[in-house]
Structures are given as structure tokens and as C-alpha cells.
Amino acid sequence: MVYFNNIPVYSYDIINTYPHDITAFTEGLVYESGYMYESTGKFNESTLRKVDLQTGEIIKLQKLDESYFGEGITIYKNKIIQLTWKSNVGLIYNKDSFNLINKFYYNTEGWGITHNDEHLIMSDGTDEIFFLNPINFKKVYSIKVHDEIKPITRLNELEFIRGEIYANVCKSNKIARICPHSGKITGWIDLKGLLSPKEYKNVGTLNGITYNTKNNHIFVTGKIWPKIFEIKLV
């Protein structure tokens, strides 16, 4: 095992690759029953979409209002919850129809969101992660994320996996594994080398994590990446 500042660093094996829309500026990703639910960003281009994992075909698409920059998503009790970046508003959809059924508001930026069944878990690009009541969306408490030396900021897309929060660190090839109680980094996942050097010249940053509970594999992609990768941690 490799360590960095006494924290283990994990690598990966690629189990499979799947096609990904190279126009999708990926901000949020959720896997469920063979489909990817994806939130894409950019003003006047943001979408919510349901995609067939195997083929990349878009099954359902909802465009956001041009004033919204789409961010992270999670699925909670048959609802899709989608954040927006600087509008201080979250969007709540029926998972099956994509009909917008409600909104909620927050006083930070919106970056990533996931849940642990009890709370919604939200990032805002700082070192703070917020735990929200899933009924009224009010803050219950928050944690500050840190390693052995310093705060860890720019926490972006989130996924709750086997009792830990996994977070993309914006503009890096790393995913942080975070203790949801203390905020301490329990591990780093180094995902450099997923794409070829030629492919990296034409894409944005790594962003998008989701989990397959049936086989303990993780799916990752990035902004305008040509592929979704199914990986196993090493």
C-alpha cells in the first residue's frame, strides 16, 4: 500500500468502459438498475438526463432554465434532487417522469449531493460538507474535511459508499474518501491515466462518481469525457 502523509492511496483496475456523450459537461452521476442519471452544467446548456449505460443512448432529457447551471444530483425515495451552482436553488423531480415537483433553497453554492438514507449530504466547493434534513432541506450539522496537515477544499461531486463519503476534488484526478463523522480523509483514490494522453487534451476535469451496490464497483467519468469507466479499487 502506498501512503501520502500517512493516508493510504488507492489505485484502480478498469473492469469495463461505456460510451459517454462528449457534449455532456458532467456535474452529477447516479447509477440505478442499468441506467445512469446524469446532471450536466453550463448556463443555457444544463440538463437532467437518464442514459442507457451500455449504449449511451439518452432515454429521457429535461433541460433546465437558461439561468441555471446544473450541478450534483442524488436519488432519494423516488425523487431526483438536483443542485444548481450559484442560483441558491435545488430542484426536485419525480424520478420516473422528470416532472419538476418542488424547489428548495440554500445560502451557499451548490456543488455535489448524495445521501446516507438519514440525511442529504451536500458540498459547496469549500472544505465543508453539510448534512441536510431530507424533508425540509434545513441544515442539521456540517463537518470540515481535512487530512493530517490542512483543510481539503474544492470538494465537488459526492457519493456515499459503504459508510464513507467519496468526493471528487475539483480540477484534480483524485477522489477523497472521507469519514462522515470526523471529516478526516481516510484514503485517496488516484485516477490518473484513465484516458489516453491524446484524449486528455480534449476533455475537462474528472467529475462524476457513482456506485454499484451489487458488485462493489465504482463508475467514474468527467466533463465532456468520451467514456464512463467501471473500476475496482486496488
Task: List the defining traits of the structure above.
mainly beta, 234 residues, four-stranded antiparallel beta sheet, Neuraminidase, six-stranded mixed beta sheet, 22 strands
Structural account:
The chain is mostly beta strands and 234 residues long. The protein has one domain: 6 Propeller (Neuraminidase), CATH 2.120.10.30. It is 2% helix and 54% strand. The strands form five sheets. It has a six-stranded mixed β-sheet with strand order 1-2-19-18-17-16, with no helix packed on it. It is globular, with a radius of gyration of 16 Å.
CATH topology: Neuraminidase
Give the helix tally. 1
Helix content: under 10%
Order of helices and strands: EEEEEEEEEEEEEEEEEEEHEEE
| Distance between the first and last residues' Cα | 9 Å
Q: State Rg.
A: 16 Å
Tell me the CATH superfamily. TolB, C-terminal domain
- The domain tally reads 1
- The biggest beta sheet, please? 6 strands, mixed
The outline comes out as globular
Please outline what is shown here.
This protein is mainly β and 234 residues long. It has one helix at residues 197-200, and strands at residues 2-4, 7-10, 12-19, 26-32, 35-40, 47-52, 58-63, 70-76, 79-84, 89-94, 100-105, 113-115, 120-123, 128-132, 139-144, 155-161, 164-169, 174-178, 185-190, 206-212, 217-222, 227-233.
